[in-house]
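Format notes (please read before filing issues)

Several people have asked whether sequences and C-alpha cells are stored in separate files. They are not. Every record keeps both together, in the order shown below: the sequence lines, then the C-alpha cell lines. Line labels are part of the format and must not be stripped during preprocessing.
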Amino acid sequence: CLCAPGWTGEFCQFVENACLIYPNNCSDGATCIDMSQLREQPLFQCLCPRDFTGEFCEVQIDNCGSNSCENGGTCIGHEDHFECICPIGFEGERCELDIDACLFNNISCAPGALCFYDEENQRSHCVCTLGWTGNTCLENINDCEINQCQHGATCEDGINKYSCYCVPGYEGPFCEVEINECSSSPCKNGATCLDLSGHFSCHCTAGFKGETCSVRISECQDRPCWNGGTCEEDIGGFKCNCRFGFSGQYCETEMNECDSAPCLNGAVCQNDVNSYDCFCPEGFEGLNCEINFDECTYGFCKSNSTCLDLVADYSCACPPGFTDKNCSTDIDECSSKPCKNGGHCHDLIGEFYCSC
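Then the structure lines:
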C-alpha cells in the first residue's frame, strides 16, 4: 500500500503524523503539533501566533473591544493588552490626557473655548463658545447688531444675548407692547382718561381736580370773597355774599382810595375800608411798590459769579468754565474734542487737559 501523508503501516492503518493528515486545520501562521499515539486516532494541537486563540487559532484576540482609545486615538490589540497610538495633543494609556495641542502653535484660547490641531495643515485653531469670536475667542460678539428693540428702546449687549430697556409706555422682551395706562381706570369721579405715551391724562368733571380727579375742589378754600364777604360753595364754582357797601363777583367794588392810583410800577391797587393795598409786580416792594427789589439778595448766582440787579430780574456774570442764567452749569471743554491722535480729554473747571 502507498500510504497517504500522515499514515503508515502495512495497510496504512497507523497514524504517523496527524498534522499531515489535516494540513489546513490550523489557521495561517499557527504551528501544528502532532499529539497522536501509534494505534490511536489522529490527534493534533495548534500553537497559535500572538494575538490569536481558539482550537484552530481561528479567533483573533481584540483587546480593543472593551478598551477603546479616547480622543481619536488608534487602538492596536495584543494577546494580553492593547496599545493606543495618540494624535498630536493627547497622551496617556487611553489618550485621555489633553496636553494642549495649541502649544505647538503658541495659541492660547480664551477660557471655555476649545483648541483643535489640524494635522493636515499643521496649525491650531480655537472653537469659541456662543457669544465670542476672534482667533483666540476674546472678542465679544455685539448681539445688538441684530437689534430688535422697538419704539426707541435702548439695546444693551450681553454674552450671546442682548437686553432691551424700554422707554416709558412700552413693555415686552423687545418693547413691542404699548402699555395702556388707562386700563387700570386711574381717573376718578367720572373723569375721562386719555392714554398717552408713557403716561395718562384725566379730564375732570366740574368740582374735582388733581392728577386723577380725586380731590373735590373747595372754591371757598382760598377765601376769594373780599371785604368780609361770605363765600358759598356751588357746583364747579362759588358765590360771594357781600357786606353792605360792597358789590361785584368778589365783593371787590367800593368807592375807594385806589381812584388816585397810588400804586406804582404796574402794581394792582386793592381798596379796603378807609385804606388800600398795593400788590406789587415781581421785582418791586414798598407801600406803593416804589422800591426796586434787589434779587441778588437771594443768592441765585452760583460758582462765585457776580450778580447784577435788574428791574424784576437779575443777571449773573459767570467766571470762566461756567454758564447758564445762574452760572451753575460747568462748561464741558471736552465737547469740542480738542485732544488729537487718540488722546483722552479730561474736563476741568474753565479748562481741560489731554492724556495722550
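For reference, the curators noted about this record: The domain at 294-356 is CATH 2.10.25.10 (Laminin). The two ends are 114 Å apart (CA to CA).
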